Fold:
Amino acid sequence: MPKGERGFGWDKIFKPKGYNKTLGEMSLEEKKESAAMVFRELKLHSALEEEIFYPMLEQLEIGDLVGEALDDHQTISVLIEELEEMDIHQEDFINKF
Structure:
């Protein structure tokens, strides 16, 4: 059941991990806190893949999957940097996040 009046699209049904509210019910400050958690988890995920998983894949010599994945990681890293520097009240923040 959709809940909340804030946001758009999936905001009224998506509940971030650790929260009892949908994004549509959250204040901007709560969304900022949730975004910070997402950024930390994405950075940890990327680091684990880059330091442990990808080196093992490279040994299998299965094409350029690792290179493509590292390109994706770079794109995500740039996006996270941009979002971390933005004010959550900016419309661009919500659109990019």
In short: The chain has three helices and no strands. The chain has a mean pLDDT of 81.
